[in-house]
Amino acid sequence: MNFTVAIVGRPNVGKSTLFNRLVGKKLALVDDTPGVTRDRRPGDAKLVDLRFTIVDTAGLEQSGPETLQGRMWLQTEAAIDEADITLFVVDAKYGLTPADETLGEMLRRRGKPVVLVANKSEAKGSDGGYYDAFTLGLGEPVAISAEHGQGMIDLRDAIVAAIGEDRAFPPEVDEAETNVDVRDEAALAGAEDDEDFEPEYDETKPLRVAIIGRPNAGKSTLINRFLGEDRLLTGPEAGITRDSISVEWEWRGRTIKMFDTAGMRKKARVQEKLEKLSVADSLRSIRFAESVVIVFDATIPFEKQDLQLADLVIREGRAAILAFNKWDLVEDPQAVLADLREKTERLLPQARGIRAVPISGQTGYGLDKLMQSIIDTDKVWNRRISTARLNRWLDGVQTQHPPPAVSGRRLKLKYMTQVKARPPGFMISCTRPDAVPESYIRYLINGLRNDFDMPGVPIRIHLRASENPFENKKKRR
């Protein structure tokens, strides 16, 4: 993106609605309750022919720095300092307030480009609020309706005037001169037809990681420690995070996109509309991510909600990693670690071998090991095994432990191939697939885990009644 724009204003003026309008998606939570947004949320914005990074922020509330509202405003100030231009949103329907005047004075002192935006200008009687905005001394306000999309052309023109034509529209790079590694798709397709083909893991591909857990498990503190800065709002209060916030950074040269999510309580306890929206946003982050770190509080681990979250991630087919946070508060680490590992194997049999790492987001203990576990789990999650190796393995496991006889007739597993990765999924051609017992399918899954070194990820096996696709070829020879 060419430049960064921060959206600021007091609570309930429509900042998040404008953010969603500019990114073209409902990424930010929107509700009539003031102060819904708490963290900085970045997004890729498109406004007619403009492309830029937009950052949604918390609303200004007069309070001390030690309070939650004060810490929220420190995050907003950081967004203003990092942005190239600020969109100062006021409510034309209700007019100016002392908070608007305080924020306007602060923006004038900073001396950065500011575009004054009078939102809700479609409302009856909004003219008074629009003209009041001139008194802020930040130039002519742009009348818009973020809800209905009115005034977007005028907003585009105001942004270009504030940032400058050269910055708004930099010269395009000639694609012919860039060194782009283009893969030969035809050659790749041919390779995948080979029974011995096993693609290598791409160490350079960006990785999407979601951090989930119960409220107050230390998720935001953990991400801040990874980043080396107070990027996300933290504090002793439970349930601070509401939106799922994405942040990018590099670990050993690889781009990592992490998603901080709202803490998820038991479904029966989630009553308020805003918390339901936050939980739904967290669930979307799980489905969008590749790897999911489930943060447990090491001082009170394996609560029922912890196990339900782990089961949810596994059922969604994500690559799951357990992080036992607040390890700095554990008194007997060796004994506690042995107990946690025993409980992990016993309570999560559906993900046998899942990686579990003791960490401390407060001190930074164990974070490198956690990241390495994320990478190692992602390798397994992306793994493809050649058809030739799978069929040699299938013959061996049937010899060692043949399928049971059902109604006096022996079941026969004829052919096996991997039909997908992310997570690994396999298809087995067999006689009477409906008669194969679940216990034998679990035997095959555990065998795949052990013999092909695939711990901790969901493995799916699908059975179907069909002939070996190579059987006719053999008969013709």
UniProtKB/TrEMBL annotation:
Domain EngA-type G, residue spans? 3-167, 207-382
Q: Which key words are in the record?
A: GTP-binding, Nucleotide-binding, Repeat, Ribosome biogenesis
**Which range is the signal sequence, renumbered to this chain?**
none
**Which Pfam families does the entry mention?**
KH_dom-like (PF14714), MMR_HSR1 (PF01926)
Q: Where does GTP 2 bind?
A: 213-220, 260-264, 325-328
**Keyword Phosphoprotein, does the record have it?**
no
Q: Where does GTP 1 bind?
A: 9-16, 56-60, 119-122
Q: Which residues cross the membrane?
A: none
Protein's UniProt keywords contain Magnesium: no
Q: PROSITE patterns this protein is in? A: G_ENGA
Record text on subunit structure and interactions: Associates with the 50S ribosomal subunit.
Q: What does this protein do?
A: GTPase that plays an essential role in the late steps of ribosome biogenesis.
Give the family, as the similarity comment puts it: Belongs to the TRAFAC class TrmE-Era-EngA-EngB-Septin-like GTPase superfamily. EngA (Der) GTPase family.
What is the name of the protein in this document? GTPase Der
Q: Which organism is it from?
A: Pararhizobium capsulatum DSM 1112
